[in-house]
């Protein structure tokens, strides 16, 4: 059974608590289709420094049948792109947009989220707001919405029919993943792009996640938070951690499993930063059954025993001090291919899995042989990243589907869970989306590269 849940105002407030919001009251409206006593809420749901995403909601005391909203941004904004509107325009800091027809009616007493947008620049606030040409009362700044707790309530059950509702708390049983009933399962899904290199914040959008759950049938989503490059986590730890929190909160609401990936190639050189990151998130989200931790994306050609394993031991200890049971997936040397090396000297602990990555134009049976050695030694594997391309992510645009199918068959036969690289727009053959793909889903006509193959191998 598949479901589609609409986001409630209360849940939007959860995200806003960390990122800020403002409410603007529309009063004294005299236009025939603009009601007195309306409220417009401007909610920043994602802010990545150079740009942001926001939603607009209207509450009507009296019915509204068609609206045009305008305001001035308090910060410098450019490149705005709105959905579910007509006639959008941005002149300097002044923005205006009208309803799209189907969303023009707002009943008396109803609050309706009418549209959203992304923009470059500073989110700031809005002022001098007007509906249907009638200016807001007062200075337009209104009162901030009441902050709500940022942590999802662990007593809230996941939505009916969703992956988390079906499988519940995960564990490692032997060298497989099991659901809360002890049954071996295989989760399948997709990974984000490095967050700071996304062309748009696809990973942070709840509507997109719910659309992938319902239309592609993904069960797990991996949020790849870049660590070392310029502009990534080490440059802005609080900013990028807040983006990861948005994805965790969205996944909890959507009933989808989420892999929190410390997407690094030299993470063992940043152990203190990793310990701080995972200690904080495990403390606040470790109670959720859908969270999976991945402390090290792809160690390069470094020693397992001398560098990678000691790093994992430190980070796992930090996670377990806050979260005793959620699965932790451990990166392995040589860009997460040397799982056989890790199998000969594994990390002590429970509910530990090991990362295996492959790209089918580069990696073939020799890499599966290494993985089979690890499985025979008792290791539980999770392919948190793969592509039907060369190991560079498909810069040449090629796909190697025959070898990719061999990998898919091997993972299915061994019940090895996977997330495919990567949810973004671009020329690489591992980019799942083509130019013009909207932020919120609806991508059936925007598939690119290996996307049709990936989607065909998601649960049917």
Automatic annotation (TrEMBL):
Q: What is its EC number?
A: 3.2.1.4
Q: Which reaction is the catalytic activity of this chain? A: Endohydrolysis of (1->4)-beta-D-glucosidic linkages in cellulose, lichenin and cereal beta-D-glucans
**One Pfam family this chain carries?**
Cellulase
Q: Which Gene3D superfamilies does the UniProt record give? A: 2.60.40.290, Glycosidases
> What ranges does the record list as Acidic residues composition bias?
145-154
Q: Which InterPro entries match?
A: CBD2, CBM2/CBM3_carb-bd_dom_sf, CBM2_carb-bd_dom_sf, GH, Glyco_hydro_5
Signal peptide range equals 1-23
| Source species, domain of life | Bacteria
Keyword Signal found: yes
Region entry Disordered, spans: 134-167
Say which family it is in. Belongs to the glycosyl hydrolase 5 (cellulase A) family.
Q: Which protein, by its recorded name, is this?
A: Endoglucanase
């Amino acid at each position: 059974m598949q479901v589609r849940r609409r986001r409630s105002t209360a849940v939007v407030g959860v995200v806003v608590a960390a990122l800020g919001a403002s409410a603007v009251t529309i009063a004294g409206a005299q236009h025939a289709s603009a009601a007195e006593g309306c409220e417009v809420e401007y909610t920043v749901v994602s802010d990545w420094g150079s740009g942001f995403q926001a939603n607009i909601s209207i509450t009507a005391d009296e019915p509204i049948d068609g609206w045009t909203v305008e305001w001035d941004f308090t910060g410098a904004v450019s490149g705005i792109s709105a959905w579910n509107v007509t006639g959008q325009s941005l002149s300097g800091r002044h923005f205006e947009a009208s309803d799209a027809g189907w969303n023009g009616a707002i009943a008396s007493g109803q609050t309706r989220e009418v549209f959203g947008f992304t923009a470059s620049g500073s989110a700031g606030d809005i002022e001098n707001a007007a509906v249907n040409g009638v200016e807001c009362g007062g200075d337009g700044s209104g009162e901030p919405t009441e902050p709500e707790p940022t942590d999802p309530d662990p007593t809230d059950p996941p939505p009916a029919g969703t992956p988390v509702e079906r499988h519940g708390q995960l564990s490692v049983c032997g060298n497989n993943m099991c659901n809360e009933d002890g049954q071996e399962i295989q989760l399948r899904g997709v990974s984000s792009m490095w967050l700071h290199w996304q062309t748009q914040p696809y990973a942070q959008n709840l509507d997109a996640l719910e659309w992938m759950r319902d239309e592609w049938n993904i069960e797990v989503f991996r949020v790849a938070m870049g660590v070392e490059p310029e502009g990534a986590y080490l440059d802005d730890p609080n900013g990028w951690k807040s983006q990861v929190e948005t994805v965790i909160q969205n996944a909890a609401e959507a009933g989808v499993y989420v892999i929190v990936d410390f997407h690094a190639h030299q993470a063992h050189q940043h152990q203190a930063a990793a310990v701080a990151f995972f200690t904080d998130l495990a403390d606040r989200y470790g109670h959720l059954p859908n969270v999976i931790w991945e402390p090290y994306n792809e160690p390069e050609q470094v020693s397992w025993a001398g560098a990678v394993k000691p790093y994992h031991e430190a980070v796992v200890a930090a996670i377990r001090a806050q979260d005793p049971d959620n699965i932790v997936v451990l990166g392995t040397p040589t860009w997460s291919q040397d799982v056989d090396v890790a199998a000969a000297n594994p990390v002590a602990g429970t509910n530990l899995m090991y990362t295996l990555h492959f790209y089918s134009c580069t990696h073939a049976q020799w890499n599966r042989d290494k993985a089979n050695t690890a499985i025979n030694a008792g290791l539980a594997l999770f392919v948190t990243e793969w592509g039907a391309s060369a190991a560079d992510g498909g810069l040449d645009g090629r796909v190697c589907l025959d070898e990719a199918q061999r990998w898919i068959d091997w993972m299915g036969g061994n019940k090895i869970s996977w997330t495919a690289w990567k949810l973004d727009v671009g020329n690489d053959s591992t980019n799942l989306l083509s130019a013009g793909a909207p932020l919120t889903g609806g991508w059936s006509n925007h598939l690119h590269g290996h996307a049709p193959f990936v989607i065909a191998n998601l649960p049917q």
